[in-house]
Predict the 3D structure of the following.
Amino acid sequence: MLASAKASHLGSNMSVIEMLVAMHLSIDCEKVRSRSVDRSRLIISKGHCAAATYAVSAEFGLLASDALINYHVNGSLLAGHVSHKVPYIEHSTGALGHGINVAVGCAIGLRARGFLESKVICLVGDGEIQEGSVWEAVMLASHLQLSNFVLLVDNNQISSIRRTKDVLNMEPLVSRFQAFGCRATEVDGHSVEDISNAIAEDGRSSSPGVVICNTVKGKGVRFAENDPVWHYRTLNEDLLHEALAELR
Amino acid sequence: MSKDQDIFFLTGDMGINLVEPIQSQFPARFLNVGIAEQNLIGVSAGLANLGYRPFAYTISNFLIHRCLEQIRNDISLHEYPITLVGTSTGFDNSPLGPTHHIVDDWGMLKSFSNFKVYCPSSVSYAKNIVPRVLSQDSPAYIRVPKGNPINPDSADDVILIGSPKSEVAIVTYGGLVQECLKVHEANSKVAIIVINQIFPLDEDRIIEYLGGKRQILVVEDHVPKTGLYGSLCELMVRANIGVNIEGLGPTEPVFEVGSTPDYYFRRFGLDSDSLLKKCALIYGH
């Protein structure tokens, strides 16, 4: 998708694949498909991982696989940031520090409607949490003890152009979120099982859950791993073949 | 809220001695998000995702200026029927300084074509707004001026006070309507056109009222270029109405304290005395 579209954000997409899979495994996708009002909600606050979101969505039967080739194509709805015009995407994002607030609103709404079995899982980036609005959402989720709200942080340690610790160091993340009243844990962000278990564990708490997913930006594509430039650089034909060979 | 179970009221920690009855009668659909306006809008969008009809309330400057990106991305793009309720307009908060002067708010929303903006000039019109926004599936901003004026006692979007044949008309809305009514009382030759729904405009009615005039004065508590003056200039060009039009409103921030709005009205020529003099000059005496 990224190569044929000559699109950016390779690193940001490769770091969240397992997180997206775990998110989909943690909810009843049938209810998502039927647009049932009591469905659990997945909110992709880090909207620039649209390619990964659409690919995983297709794996779970929420998007036709043959639609993926339309990413970035004229007239297609598959833009570089997730769009609610694409089937089953709850909310359009792109500007950072928006989706998490909407996710908290969904969690409040689910509770107010009495849909206590459903939850909201929200994906944010570790650069994104530099936005002040993120903490407005976290504070409210904590104050209201939104146990139906789980936040996954893609801790790939690189934001837009630099390493997060050099730009605006937010570590230690776990104790920072704990200080805000959340139940925070840290997992291998490339282990679907570990992430899924952490999400399930969070549902049993009386506080909102935060799962710090330690990931590698560009995971699986060695030349792109941990290199900030792959937030923006696009794949040429040779690099595409190299990347695909490694992934296989 | 008792009739419509989907109404959800949110405040950004504003509305003392105002919001308490809502909280006590409808605790499950009342939420004070704290002094966190970006979250106020985002949470409202999340509630709209659940099918609620959120009303998000705080002072207009905190609501619109701080949250413009949330309003665009999380409300307008999603076409959520969220109603923004902003108290204070223009110079209502006069001595609090320019951060609290609300003179450049609703003009920014004109870029969001699915928004409707109401600025009630009287209690009669204000009463009509909530049922109206509930009957629509679009986002709305209610820009609420301070005060409880009885007149004009009408729920119409556009109200003509005076003769349709008047050569001079003042077009105004919201908190400046009372000043303009004083002008009409002192000089009945000047017609007053009150607009309660300021975006989008009831163009047919306005074209009907503006046609044939010699001079139009637009009097508003908003930067004219991006406010009603801008809207009317664009409409008149499109409708080929060749009438002189002048926009009167705040054109720059004011740091000098005015203890009441009158100070600022006088500064920008929006008070009834200044307007009467201007009209007398137009009439040539």
